[in-house]
Structure formats: C-alpha cells, structure tokens
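Q: May I have one protein plus its fold?
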Amino acid sequence: MISLAQALRPLPDLDHVMQALSQGDRGAPEAAPQPRLSADLESFRQIAIAPYWASIERRLTADRAARSEIVLSGGWDQMFTSLHRAIRWDPPVLEVPGEGEDVKLGSAGLWLAPSLFLAARPPILFDRYLGQDRPTLLYPVPIDWGRLSFIWDAAEEGDGALHALMGRTRAAVLVALSSSATTTEVGERVGISSAAASQHTAVLRAAGLITTLRSMNRVQHTLTPLGAALITRLT
C-alpha cells in the first residue's frame, strides 16, 4: 500500500486507475496486478477515509450550499471565479489551467465536485469522471489548516458540540438541511412531525442559519453560509 501511495498521485492518476479497473483493463499499472490494486485501494479507504467520511461529507455539503448562495446572490460569473484563483470565466469560455485538449460543454452541462483531497492544488477538469455522462470540474474546498482536526475529532466525538449548543433535535434539523428540503421532508429526515419541523425551522431562520423560499403552498428551506459554517465547525 505504501508503494502504491508513492507511485500514484491522488488525481488524476487514481481516476485513470479506477477507470481502467472498472473496464477490466489489465494495463493499470503493471507493478500492481488488478486484484492487489483493488484490495490496496479498499484497505486505504477503510483506514483513511471511512471512519471520517460523515464529517468530510458534511464539509463538502456545506461548501455546495455556500456555492449555491453565491449563485443566487452574484450569479454564475461570481460563483465560477470563487472556485479558485486560477480559473478564468469569460462567457462562454471557462478557462481551467492544465494539460490536455479543450473540453466542449454540450447540453449535458458541467458537474461541479468539491474535494478536500486536492488541498492547495488547482482544479482538475475531466472530460469524463468515474463514468459520469458529462464533464466534471473538481475544485479544492478551502481548508483552514489550523482547524483541520475537526475531521479527525468528529470520528470520536460525533455531533456532541452542535447538540450541546442547539439541542439534539434542532441540531438534527439543521444538519438535515445540508440538502435543501421542504418542511415535510425535514420532518421525515429527522423523524418528527411537520408541525415540530416548522417550529424548529422558524427558530433557525430567525437566527440567520437558514433561508426559506415560499411558493404557493410549498416552503423550501436552505442553509445560509452561516448555517453551513456552523455545521462545519461543530460537527
């Protein structure tokens, strides 16, 4: 496993390996036969990623929520330029530094995928990524290196800090809104009644942690950047 980590960069090498394995290509890479490579990758995932995935996923979800807020407030121009200083957005051209041929976006559009594993590296644009049917732009999630321990601490402490601050149910409602939802959907996710979910979202909205969009009889709740940051810091 150590030799594998030394031989491969996380991206894009690992993506090329995974693509080859998924297609049964024995050409990936010669020094590590397919069964051993698959076993090594799974062992690494179990040790280095799986125990911390819940915390990592919350950080990624919080970033997606923040990017959505940027789109709503400043449009796509501001959102694209916020992804990384190396990206240049000159409609209709999105310039991403790197090697390879130009990627033309069709009607399928573009996937945006936040990554904690790129760290300080620039974004990477894939024509096809892990079988996706459209180009994918992986961009690095900003990391506060002084607080990076929140990922490792969360595996041991769970959501205790957030629960202590807000109460277990209200904290669960806030985390449930990592993905935008209606009041009914929030209740279903947390396991409470719609009336109780409405009460909790009202408090969260008053505190500036969520926003609510009403359209006829439909109410949609979404995290604000402040709410996303609170989840990231305390979970």
Summary: The longest strand covers residues 210-215. The CA atoms of residues 130 and 206 lie 41 Å apart. The beta strands are 88-90, 93-95, 111-115, 124-126, 136-140, 181-182, 210-215, 218-223.
